[in-house]
Known about the structure:
This protein is α/β, with parallel strands linked by helices and about 300 residues long. The protein contains eleven helices and twelve strands. The protein starts with 5 loop residues before the first strand and ends with a strand.
Amino acid sequence: MTGEPEVRTVLGDIDPAELGVTNAHDHLFFASQLLPGQELDDPVAAAHTLLDFRTRGGSALVQWTPYGLTRRTRELARMSAEIGVHVVAATGLHREEHYSPVILGRVIDGLVEEFVADLTEGTQPADLPDEPRTGPRAGLVKVAGAFHTIDSHARLTMTAAAVAHQETGAPIAVHLELGTAGLETVELLCEKLDVPPGKVILGHLNRNPDPALQRQIAETGVFLGFDGPSRANHATDWRLFDGLEALVEAGHGGQILLGGDTTTAAARAQPGASYLLTTLAPRLTELLGGDVVTAMLVANPARAFATSWLK
């Protein structure tokens, strides 16, 4: 790769130092057939969320919503410009269960082309596949594993993500189903498909609070996403602090990313994206120290989402 690393936001590429305090994994828009009635598809509510995040000291938000799940990138760009928060959007594909056969059928045979086009030309609504690519460019590829395994769909999407990375330099963010299959994901992406560990972000590690496994994953060099709390996974939230403390003590504080991962209307209302700054960060500061938490919110995401773009 050539050139200085930059973060690709919905308003264009920026110096990583401009990113600032970052919610490294969240959703302003998200709608799935698995969550009927809980859609995040209201631009006014999304704008209020982003404004509140900025008011609490937030500077950047990374939306992991991939193709076909209502990512609304044009709205993201409008809100980013009006509110003054950097926003990074995603291309990619989630688990197969999230999609109707119609949406999945449009892209499944041309994933690399779709991912690369979203990253380099501009995003396109899934319901308007023949429209010109006038949307903002995506800044990462989001894919997903299965529960405790890499199933055929995950293998297909991860392979396409790896090729898209090789062609563009884009970071790859991975939804680990309930925090599982982390080592299997690293083996596929980094060992078999030659993606550098520093270009891989594993999400939801807090949902499988196995300290030995988390440390083993950290030793591979990938970025470690701890995102929540989640109403669906609140039973593991209380173990987040012990897990982060252990990783920091083992020397892996520079790999940790923090996010809110709001995926439903109920979660937007409570605790909401700003919980990361109003409650979680202060508690972590008491436990780990301000410099460590600042790195998790500023320096680490600046490195995780920056790359020397090839296109």
